[in-house]
Amino acid sequence: MKRAAVFVGLVVFGWLVWDTGADPTRLVRGIPWIIDFLRRMMPPDFHVLPAVLAGALTTVEIALLGTTVAAALALPLGFLSARNVVTPPVFYPARVLLNFLRSVDTLVYALVFVAAVGLGPFPGVLAVIAYTTTSLAKLYSEAIEGIERGPVDAITATGATRLQVLRFGVLPQVLPLFLSYVLYRLETNIRAATILGFVGAGGIGFYLQTYLRMIDYPAASTALLVTIVMVMVVDAVSSRVRARLV
Amino acid sequence: MIEVAGLRVVFPPNVVAVDGVDLSVRPGEFVVILGRSGSGKTTLLRTLNRLVEPTAGSIRVDGRTVTGAGPAELRAIRRHIGMIFQQFNLVRRASVIDNVLAGRLGFVPPLPSLLGRFPERDHALALDCLAQVGLAHLAGRRADTLSGGEQQRVAIARALAQEPAVILADEPTASLDPALTTEIMDILRRINVERGLTLVVSQHQLDTALAYATRVVGLRRGRVGFDGPPAAVTPAAVEAIYDGGSPR
User: Fold this and answer.
1) Does residue A37 form part of some domain?
2) Is the pLDDT confidence value at A245 over 80?
3) N or C: more exposed end of chain B, with fewer CB within 10 A?
4) Which residue has the higher pLDDT, B135 or B244?
């Protein structure tokens, strides 16, 4: 049984290597080209810095606005897809809808929204909202399902309404977790928003892609450096705040 | 004050937790429900304010019918019944005073309360209740920074904030050491004597039950096996209540 599984695994692996044309020697032969590429990126052309920084700011704005709106929109959805809040007739459709919407990535949403509302940061914001709302709703609902039953019982026993029980028994338990998830999504959305520019949804990605197309590698390396610094700064700040929350 | 007739609670698929309990509690009584774990004490108490739905039978508290009450009516009944739990059940991340204020939720205007705003009168009442359990100085602290005994006193203050007619206490000292057990039971007795509040307290410890109760109800396999004053709890009665097991 075990041998058969190993054999099948090896066959599948071999087929994958063959079918994708994976060939380590090709990579080795390509190394000089990578070096050449990196060399042509040096030194970075800092003349484009103002434009690149403006693009970086737009990227941060897309991520920030999109994540904020999504954090709020995900609240009702999160509660509606938590097993211990609603009955199965509400819970199952909500879960199926979330899983359906979540299976499409931010970039695909961006393509749709660029086609719908045109180029610029706005379709980027819409794409971030579309994906982040569903992914946060899923995380919210899991946090809600993990709460302690005791305080909920205690609040219920005081004669509180359902909404009051949510507000005083559930929310204080889950809010720090929610905030932590939102910050985490903000980090990943900064990265996602960088790519959004590639499909015309604004931000620093637009500059990076334009420079690469114009074969202006020194300018592209400036955009790349700014992207790296931006992501690192946001990650550092956000993870520090998250550590204090939980 | 509390009228229970023919109460049965069956959990799916067919676990009979309470098996035909009749019980009448008069105003001002300090009733201790005694029994080993699994005898149905917790279920009986939680059914009195319908945290657990009864399968059959009727419950009346303070002249109102609990069984069959609609959602609004049930909330109106619950707000006059304070409840204390073995695990305290405070909202850990909330402040002490916010936990006590939760006792006012059934009385305050719902919408402002959702924004965390309570009338001045209710704030004053919550602080007063906290003072009665000797913890007014900890009002601003986060609940989970308090010791177990202090947390249970906050939970008592929360129940008092309801200005209830009845307090139900489900094994209020089972998570505490003996010294704190005395402290908590003394507070409950004071509430009973000074305010004339009716108390129904479940206990698995015999000596604690006998020291505080004005009436002991022994529960055995979901049925009332003994009902009388502490003085009437003979060794034979203990044997019957604890089903031949140890009273610990």
Assistant:
1) no
2) no
3) C
4) B135
Domain with B224, as residue range(s), is: 27-47+71-241
Q: Rounded distance, CA A214 to CA B2, Å?
A: 85
Please indicate, yes or no, if residue A65 is contained in any of the structural domains.
Answer: yes
Q: Which domain holds residue A166?
A: 58-201
The C-alpha atoms of residue B83 and residue B99 are separated, in whole angstroms, by 13
Chain A hits for B88, CB-CB cut-off 8 Å, are 150
Q: Predicted confidence band at B245 (pLDDT cuts at 50, 70, 90)?
A: low
- Cβ contacts from A onto B, under 8 A: 77
pLDDT band at B164 (very low <50, low <70, confident <90, very high): very high
Q: Which of B6, B10, B32 is nearest to B215 (CA)?
A: B32
> What would the mean pLDDT of A9-14 be, rounded to a whole number?
93
User: CA-nearest residue of chain A to B105?
Assistant: A160
Give bridge partners of residue B200 from the DSSP assignment: B31, B168
Average pLDDT for chain A: 87
CB contact under 8 A, B110 and A163: yes
Q: What is the pLDDT, as a whole number, of residue A168? A: 92
Report CA-CA distances (Å) from B170 to B15, B45, B84. Answer: 20, 7, 6
Number of domains in chain B: 1
Tell me which chain B residues have a C-beta less than 8 angstroms from the C-beta of A160: 75, 102, 105-106
| ipTM, two decimals | 0.91
pTM of the model: 0.76
**Domain-located, residue B56:** no
Q: Does residue A194 form part of some domain?
A: yes
Beta carbons of B90 and A169 less than 8 Å apart: no
Residue A93 within any structural domain of the chain: yes
**Which pLDDT score, from 0 to 100, does residue B244 have?**
61
* Of B76, B85, B114, Cβ closest to residue A164: B114
| Cβ count within 10 A of residue B218 | 23
For residue B209, what are the contacts with CB-CB under 8 A and spacing of at least 6?
B32, B34, B203, B216, B230
Q: Is the pLDDT of residue B127 over 90?
A: yes
Examine the pLDDT at B22 and tell me if it is beyond 80. Answer: yes
Q: How far is A68 from chain B (nearest CA, A)?
A: 20
> Is B22 contained in some domain?
no
Q: What is the 3-state secondary structure (H, E, C) of B126-180?
A: HHHHHHHCCCHHHCCCEHHHCCHHHHHHHHHHHHHHCCCCEEEEECCCCCCCHHH
| Per-residue pLDDT at A119 | 86
CATH number at residue A142: 1.10.3720.10
CATH code at position B139: 3.40.50.300
